[in-house]
Amino acid sequence: MKDHRRKAIINAAFQIFVEKKIEPVSMGEIAELAGVGRATLFRYYPNKLELVIAVCAVKWKEYLDVLDAKRPLESIEDIPESGEKLTESRKKKVKSREKIIALLSQDNSLSAAALAERIGITPKAVEKHIAKMKAEGILKRVGPDKGGHWQVVEKTD
């Protein structure tokens, strides 16, 4: 029962903090929305600062748990937006790989920076995609970094 109350208080506080900001919200408003008495709220959190810290800790943990489920991250693009489903992020990764392959099939001399600009991701993300595709045998570098070109060994569907 205690965990249920604590969760209700955290969720109520978060909801009100998002709607009204933190400063103008009273502990009484939070207690009312959570369905507990003011005395109960103060038993869990002796002051608003401790409640704010608890809300931040819980919400950050929820967000980081989503990231942990997705690790290892390959680039900053892998960090989901608030509320984004992980499957959407994975779809974007696949689309980026497909775009890289398509662009290199058209012009095999493109640099990571040029690919990144055309696809709309960072050059570092392109480099990581390329490294992964090289390891998987999809891409091969022919010749030196300057003056060489990419060879698409196998197209993915």
What does this molecule look like?
This protein starts with a helix and ends in a 5-residue tail after the last strand. Helix 6 crosses helix 7 (123-135). 63% of the residues lie in helices and 5% in strands. The protein has a two-stranded antiparallel sheet. The chain is mainly α and 157 residues long. It has helices at 2-20, 27-34, 38-44, 48-70, 86-106, 112-119, 123-135, and strands at 139-142, 149-152. It has 7 helices and 2 strands, in the order H-H-H-H-H-H-H-E-E. The mean pLDDT is 83.
List the topology elements.
Elements: H1 2-20, H2 27-34, H3 38-44, H4 48-70, H5 86-106, H6 112-119, H7 123-135, E1 139-142, E2 149-152
Antiparallel strand pairs: 1-2
Helix pairs in contact: 1-2, 1-4, 2-3, 5-7, 6-7
Offer a few descriptive terms.
157 residues; two-stranded antiparallel ribbon
Write a concise synopsis of the structure shown.
With 157 residues, the chain is mainly alpha-helical. It has 7 helices and 2 strands.
Provide the helix percentage. Answer: 55-70%
**Which blocks of ≥5 consecutive residues have pLDDT under 50?**
none
Count every helix, treating DSSP H or I runs of 4 or more residues as helices: 7
Rounded mean pLDDT is 83
